[in-house]
Amino acid sequence: MRKKWLALSLTLALASTSSILYAADNQADIEAGETKAASCVSCHGENGNSMVSTFPKLAQQDESYLQKQLHAFKDGTRKNPMMASIAQSLSNKDIADIAAYYMAQKVSANDLPVDNDDDDDKPAASAADKKTAMDKLMAEGSNLYRNGDLPHEVSACIACHGPLGEGNEPAAFPALRSQHADYLIKTLTDFKNGNRSNNPENMMHMISNKMTVEEIKAVSYRISMMK
Q: What is the pTM of this model?
């Protein structure tokens, strides 16, 4: 128990160093945001629920986090040529309206992930064996999310992202629940490899850098099933 609380305390200590970057805009217009988000549908889906697992769902995402990311794409602190070209055409009011629109939408639930990383040198696993392996992976992901991995100094996700993956709106920490597992895996891997760094104190790099590939998969799978 002491280890669990110590892991949680470590993350809270890190989180407390972050400042509030973008507050929700009380003047944001959700209806205007829906119109302005029309060009986002092809990648992020109707109402912000992307049908492509490598494109993030934006529905029900914290408004402050969405604003922060669009500003980061706009000023180049987050690198993505396609998003940069879109964000550069947006005014601050456009960004506020789009963020408010997506936050007002309901995120869709995901089907149970399917682990396709079969070893060609081994006999094909039975359905029962695959279920057992997936149950074990999901349990590992749940433990990592709630308790972290203290021996390897991996902080618990729950401290910043909430018990149900709902995020932290004032601190602009994103909601994670029901996000695509493939997108979460890519994001954690990008943080781990240093391909993404636009987060307070580069905290996500410090955490993900100590995670194994298996741990990244496990926690991503578990988060994708949170509602």
A: 0.86
Report the C-alpha gap between 96 and 92 in whole angstroms.
6
Evaluate whether 145 touches 223 at the Cβ level (below 8 Å): yes
pLDDT digits (tens, 9 = 90+) for 17-69: 444 455 556 689 999 999 999 999 999 999 999 999 999 999 999 999 999 99
Radius of gyration of the chain (CA): 18
CA distances to 45, 60, 139, 156 from 218, rounded to whole Å, are 26, 23, 8, 13
Report which DSSP code applies to 48: G
pLDDT single digits (tens) 131-179: 999 999 999 999 999 999 999 999 999 999 999 999 999 999 999 999 9
Burial category of 21 from C-beta neighbours within 10 Å (exposed 0-12, middle 13-18, buried 19 and up): middle
Least confident residue range of 43-47, 94-98, 115-119, 153-157:
115-119
- Can you give the residue ranges of every domain in the chain? 2-18+110-224, 30-103
Compute, in degrees rounded to 10, the torsion defined by CA atoms 92, 187, 37, 162.
-80
CA torsion angle 69 15 176 171 (round to 10):
-50
CATH 2.70.150.10 for domain 2-18+110-224, yes or no, is no
Q: Distance between CA 33 and CA 28 in Å, rounded? A: 8
User: What CATH number belongs to 30-103?
Assistant: 1.10.760.10
| pLDDT at residue 188 tops 70 | yes
